[in-house]
């Protein structure tokens, strides 16, 4: 079931026009930057987005301007993941085509992170998520005591039952059309 839902939502995301995505990304970024969880956080973890995902570039740029410590994921085999300092000069493409830190990097402990901006393909109304199937975020969030938030396009809201190991996101920002 999750496999089919992943495929369906991925198709919907990839079918969004550049103009639609730009409008939604701008609105979602503004909402995130105004959110109390962002404003209060000193150390924020986010991700470097695929083209079909919410674009994190503006969030990263503003977080740096705001003096936040910025972290990105570093993945390892068997679904292990750490968050490391964002240092653009150390990024290289991994086997999934994502930019990831290589060489020397600084890992921060979960207790040092105030807010994680969590990616995902589909989210249900209770804020449980379906990612790409590696389980990286569910494993990490299982022991994370800080705050979590996600930014979603409307097509990412789906009805599904979470698995026992799934971890919900604390806050979800969903694009709303402003007419």
What is the topological layout?
Blueprint: H1 2-15, H2 18-34, H3 36-40, E1 43-45, H4 57-65, E2 69-75, E3 81-85, E4 91-93, E5 99-101, E6 107-108, E7 115-117, E8 122-123, E9 129-130, H5 136-141, E10 147-152, E11 171-174
Parallel strand pairs: 1-2, 1-7, 7-10, 10-11
Antiparallel strand pairs: 2-3, 3-6, 4-5, 8-9
Your description of this structure?
The chain is an alpha/beta fold. The chain has five helices and eleven strands. A seven-stranded mixed β-sheet has the order 6-3-2-1-7-10-11. The protein has a two-stranded antiparallel ribbon with strand order 4-5. Helix 2 (18-34) runs parallel beside helix 4. It is globular and about 40 Å long. The model has no long low-confidence stretch (mean pLDDT 92).
Taking strands numbered 1, 2, ... along the chain, how are they ordered across the largest sheet? Answer: 6-3-2-1-7-10-11
SSE order, one letter for each helix or strand: HHHEHEEEEEEEEHEE
Strand content range? 15-25%
Question: Uncertain runs with pLDDT below 50, 5 residues or more?
Answer: none
Give the gist of this structure.
By secondary structure, the protein is α/β, with parallel strands linked by helices.
List the main descriptive attributes of the protein structure presented here:
alpha/beta, 11 strands
